[in-house]
Structures are given as C-alpha cells and as structure tokens.
Specification:
By secondary structure, this protein is of the alpha/beta class. Helices cover 44% and strands 14% of the residues. It has a single domain, classed as Vaccinia Virus protein VP39 (Rossmann fold), CATH 3.40.50. The chain is built from eleven helices and seven strands. Strands 3-2-1-4-5-7-6 form a seven-stranded mixed β-sheet, sandwiched between helices.
C-alpha cells in the first residue's frame, strides 16, 4: 500500500462482494450493504456489467471472496454461542458486518492502516451508513506500533476471548509477519479464534498461471504478494504456536460445504485456502 493512501485491494475486495450480490444466485454471502458501500458510481458499473468483477472472468475470485466472509461469519456465530463477545477485523477494509444489524451484545474492533480507515469512514458518511456504538476503530500503522499496542489503546479486553477475522491480508505480508501475528493471537485468552486466508504453493499449471496473473495485477497496483505457504507445513507451524484446534479448508472442502446443487456452476477454482485456529 502506498504511504498515506488507502488500500486498492480493499476496494477491489468490496467490489467483488458487491458483484456477488448481483450476478450469483443465490449468493453464498448475502450482504445488503455491499453495493452501497462501494459508492453509487462503482455500483452502477457493476449493474451495467462494465466492471470485470461482475463478469464470468472473475467468477472464481468472486466466489472465494464471498466464501471467506461467509465462513468467517459462520465461525463467529458459533463462537458467540459459546460466549465470545469481542470481534476483531484485522485489515477491515470496507467490511460491512458491524453495520448490517444490531450488535449491541458484541464489541467490534476494526483494525486497519490509518489511511485506509479514514477512507472507509469518509465512505460510510458519503453513503449515509451510520456508525453504531458497538464499533471501535483501531488505526494501527504497523511500521510504528504493534497490534497489541493498537488493541490496548482501543480498549480491547485481553482477559476475555475474541474472534479475529484476517481476510485478504496475509498474501501481502512476509512469512515472518504472518507468523508473528498468529503467535500473538495464540497468547490470548482461551477460546480466542482466528480465521485467515492464504495462498498455497503448488497447484496445477492452470492454477499457477491464474495466480501469476493475479499477482501481476496486484503488483501493478503497488501492493505485491509477499508470501505463499505449503498447507501441511503451515498447519504444523500454526499448531506448534499453541493453538488447541487448527483446521485447513481447501477448495474441495469449501465447495462441498457451500456450493452444492447450484444451477449457475459457481465454485472455487483456485488454490487459496482458509485456516481456522482456536486457542
């Protein structure tokens, strides 16, 4: 991300979520605010099919971005049923969870770079989406402070468990940064959880070509990919940090869970994975 500029990939992910509402029926991840938050001009481009993210060319990535949000919010619902009352979105971007329904029973922390967070708050004001009392913004410039410092300043309760959503971020970080954040989460209160996505090494020739094309596009936007992981090795490394439960979900697992019996043929096609871990 360019210094003092909001994340371009955050806008891109939001556009994929918005396009999903229009072109994939039924949506895997219904989001009534997805089109509003991207802004009226961008939403109109999607409705008219003038943005590539609303075309079949982007179906695979669009499906994955919708699925990772759906899976994370499914995990959050399960965690809340077990008493978790803190939800932390690391790299919140234009996520709309906090604004879709009453969440007075849940404390939500949106963590992001100050420039991206300022851009989001301006966008919310522009499209008349109110900021509820249960949202706390935690701007963190990771070049100058740690996640722990940012959460402390925001009033996070380290004595109580929390659910962390870390979506669309790890590919842009070094391996050391990824493992460092996971190591920190592993020290938190029992029953704390994290869901994150990552790019897996290997795959078919077609999958590698697709990944290389995506990598070239994000690099051109100034936000290059910096890490890939071998799934079994990452699973072991995360388990070794002290998490009591770890699961890795690839396209086959997620397709079986979310894409059965669809008439439109929408499914996951790439080699991106989700990992879910609990302290």
């Amino acid at each position: 991300m360019e210094h003092n500029q909001p994340s371009r990939t955050a806008q891109g992910a939001a556009m994929h979520r918005a396009a999903h509402q229009l072109v994939d029926h039924p949506p895997i991840f219904p989001d009534p605010l997805a089109l509003r938050i991207v802004g009226p001009d961008a939403a109109q481009e999607l409705r008219e099919g003038r943005d590539v993210r609303a075309t079949s060319q982007s179906a695979g990535l669009r499906a994955f971005i919708a699925t990772r949000s759906r899976f994370t919010e499914d995990c959050l619902s399960a965690a809340m049923a077990c008493g978790v009352r803190q939800y932390v979105l690391l790299g919140a971007g234009l996520d709309t969870f906090a604004y879709r329904a009453a969440r007075a029973h849940l404390k939500i922390f949106e963590v992001d770079h100050p420039a991206t967070q300022g851009w989001k708050r301006a966008r919310l004001a522009d499209v008349a989406i109110a900021v509820p009392d249960w949202v706390t913004y935690a701007p963190v410039d990771f070049e100058r402070e740690t996640l722990q410092e940012g959460l402390s300043r925001a009033g996070f309760d380290f004595a109580k468990p929390a659910m962390f959503a870390w979506l669309g971020v790890t590919p842009y970080l070094t391996r050391e940064a990824v493992m460092g954040t996971l190591a920190f989460i592993a020290t938190l209160a029992k029953d704390s959880e994290v869901v994150f996505d990552y790019s897996a090494k290997g795959g078919t020739a077609r999958q590698r070509k697709s990944f290389e094309s995506l990598a070239a596009r994000v690099a051109a936007s100034g936000e290059p990919f910096r890490s890939q992981f071998e799934p079994k090795e990452l699973f072991g490394a995360v388990k070794a940090l002290g998490f009591s439960f770890v699961e890795d979900l690839d396209a086959a697992v997620l397709n079986a869970r979310y894409f059965r019996n669809r008439d439109d043929g929408l499914s996951l096609r790439g080699r991106a994975h989700l990992m879910h871990a609990r302290v």
